[in-house]
Amino acid sequence: MLQSGEEFSESQIRILEHFVTNTTSNIFALRNLPEVIKGALFSRYSRSTLGLRSLLLKEFILNEDMSFAAIAGKAADGGSANAQLVAIQKAQSFYDRILDGYGDDSIGELGGAHLAIENISMLAAKVIEDCRIGGSPLEKSTRYIYFDQKVDGRYQFYQEPVLLTSAYRDLFLDTCNHLFDTYNKLIPPLTALIEQGFPKEPTISKAAYTAALRAKVLDCLRGLLPASAMTNMGMYGNGRFYESLIQKLNCHNLAEMQEVGKNSYSELAKVIPSFIRRSEPSHKHYQLFSQFTETMQSDIQELARHHAGAVEPMSQPGVRLVDYDAESVFKVAGALLFNCTSGGLIELQNYCKALPDEELSRILDTACSARENRRHKSPRALEHASFTFEILADFGVYRDLHRHRMLTQERQLLTCNFGYYLPPEIVGTEMEKDYVEAMEAAKKAYDTIAAELPEEAQYVVPMAYNIHWYFHINLRSLQWLSELRSQAAGHTTYRLIAQEMASQVSRALPAFERFFKFVDFNGYELGRLGAEIRQELKLQNKN
Predict the structure, then answer these.
(1) For the chain, which domains are there?
(2) Which residue stretches of 25-142 are H helix?
(3) The whole model's pTM is what?
(4) How many Å apart are CA 287 and CA 282, to the nearest integer?
(5) Which residue of 198, 342, 363, 518 shows the fewest CB atoms closer than 10 Å?
(6) What are phi and psi of 141, to 5 degrees?
(7) Angle at CA 92, nearest 5°, toward 86 and 95?
(8) What digits encode the pLDDT tens for the residues 112-154?
(9) Which residues share a beta bridge with 465?
(10) Which residues pair with 393 in a beta bridge?
């Protein structure tokens, strides 16, 4: 292990040991420090000749202006959490001067926080997850958790305030309750039907079988849940991510998003105030952003009303490849050679155009022949090929695929205009009638509300209804998405989309088929079962 070259007295070492994992190595981690101190420390670090530990001692711990003992709380002098908060507020201007002094937005990425956002609609969860870079969200699952519970006699869906004060109040409430009633009603008979069709084998444990069976049932019925259904989110993000997220939420047209933005700012200001202060509504940065957003959205909407009415929508559910570069094969091959040569990139790519197919294949094979599983990520040269897909599929599928970060994606408003997904498991059974009646009632309610309140009307749209969106994605990200989302444990519908994206690229550019070697093109009736068995074996091995 390399040594840092710094020397500390015994008393300094005793202090530092509480804040760093190692006092001698050249590699160490920070601990027991508030985010605001860590962010300010690293900001200062980039323009100091001192090592980080020396800087921590000199300019933070031993700096009387910092109130470090109170800020670090118990770590320094046993102070209370309240005293720590007061001290952070007192020293805030000091930190702000450090963070502002560098004029670089990336400084906002040096501090982060964990945030829990509970009892929000599934629609709000998607708006939050639209801000993908710098944040890591996890959302309550519709395939492991039943959404049939009532609290104080009410199903858990967001009570949209505009709708509750409008002439559509009863229609909104009755429609959402009908959807939840149907969801609740169909769970027992569908469970019995699937259990009859796929009985438990003697060699499979009851726990693994029950979990797989539940996932299958809930995958089929999640389409009945309206977009207003409440979910919970856990999130970790850096300050730059939260600043952008809060600004966008505050500028949103829907009241729920504004409320989530306001409350998120209030709570994050208690732990990383310096990193999110520019998202406060009175701050000049927020005000300028708000003006820009309002003007841009208004102009786009006006032009869309003028131009887009004559354009036909995508009529059939599915996925279609709408754009790609026919020369991207040569671009990828040239990029693969680049870092091992002294040649120019465009010269290498033009050189690859003139190569025989056999030699070009040899170059492309170097990026995939050694891959043994989907977690072996391909080199960045694959990012020189990009594709645009247009997709029409149910909102439940969109929720799953939307989580992928390394791509450009945009969606249209939720509507009931493009039809809905009918699970084949219930087709021809008595359950089909209940399901279809609930879907048709939801469409009737949506059409009525959307005539006046199109954005608020989204809350009544069931997850089974199709949504229209696009992906613009590079080959490396597409490889990851297709191989991950086609696995046996995935939902049937998004597995088909993942498979189809890989297939369409392979047909358009056959040379790229080699990069989808771990796409699973098989079909599975009880797809979650294998994953549940493997999970149970892991637990047994640990015990």
Answers:
(1) 10-109 (no CATH), 113-308 (3.30.1360.170), 312-421+464-543 (3.30.1360.170)
(2) 35-45, 52-55, 68-71, 81-90, 92-100, 122-129
(3) 0.86
(4) 7
(5) 342
(6) -85, 140
(7) 140
(8) 889 999 999 999 999 999 998 889 898 888 888 899 999 999 9
(9) 420
(10) 467
